[in-house]
Specification:
Number of domains: 2
Number of helices: 1
Shape: elongated
Structural class: mainly beta
Largest sheet: 16 strands, parallel
Number of strands: 42
Radius of gyration: 28 Å
Strand content: 35-45%
Distance between the termini: 34 Å
Oligomer: single chain
Amino acid sequence: MKKRISTLLALLLAVSLVPVTVGARTEDEPHTHKICADADCPDNHEVKTWTAWDSSSALPNEAGYYYLTNDIITENGVNVVDGVYICLNGHIIQSVGKGTVTLTATPACDNCGLTDCTDTVHKFSEREDGLWVLDEENGDIPIEGAAIIGSMLIASDIMFEMYNINAVGDDGAGIFLYSRGKVLLEKCGISGNNGSHALNAISPVELRDCIICANRCDSAVRVSNEFKIGGRITIDANINADGKSCNLELREGRTVTIAEPLSEYSYIGVSAEAVPTIGNPISVTGANGEDYSAYFHSDNYNYMIVNGENNVVQLTEVNPKTYPYTINSLKLVSASGEEYDEIPTDKGFIVDMDVTKVADRSGQDYFIVAAYGENGTLVSLNYIKADLPTGTSFSCGVNMPKTDELIDTVKAFVWDGLGTATPLAQSVEI
């Protein structure tokens, strides 16, 4: 069944991605506003006068401040060059050529950027693979403000700024950051993309008041460099092809820097390349002046977010459930005791199971060995019933004769009974 964005998520997008509107203009009035289009600009930007750009297929190549009067539709992509700042003025930039890049800011772009000053609404529909496709007439996903539809490569030398822009509907690489300079994304939305990553932060980047959601990628945000955030940040409701959460992925020991206080309703799903364990958590952020752990959650239910020393947000292993039995080992051996490295396909074998009873429990329990075929069907199930004294261990060998069906997996369980099947140990499989 087609997976559609929920009403709640649609509302979240509509509320969160609204650009700051500078007000209606008449044809005789000049197009003037700050680069961030924010009357209460915290960065003290100056008001700029923007020159009309009437092309529908190319962007200007001389330094200056321009605003679009048409959508930019291209088969070969467009390029932002040094010194050029563009107000999309509610329009879209879209590449319709197969495999082309919609927008590139090249290494020659020492200072350049994009902004939008409108609350124009564009409508999208969702494909079966999660990609959002522009559908102005019948789309049921509203996005407020200008949109870049397709992939972006940002590789500026000094500064690239993007304000109030939606990056939507890329079928591949999303936004790829490979800059030597500073990249700032403020009040931007990244949604409805699929492929590897919606935002691949190979180079440093700062996000302020951004929302990254409803992408279907291996990981929505991949962090391999300095990653700063502030304001209201939402990185959530992103899934991979298997339907599992894949929001913010920290690579190579990187952490998140909270450069400005996080605002209420920030919500960030996290995973890490390394594996956290109890007593050896992984740092998600650096040290902070306050506890921000409530704004983060783990993408993997085996791990959880905690607040560590100096308010470092950490990812740690969930305390494992305590069972009365522990399966110490599971081995496959021949009748002569030779151990197999993998499941034999041309002969029978013996499954050797070693178990310890670690907690008090009365009554006979079931020690089970099961074999499954390639499609998950049960090929064989054998069990031994026993009532062991607490603190004792025992080993049992279960014979698995050669079968016509190929055995793909062997699993060991301890249950309280075949009918109830309540687990009494963490299962082990080969």
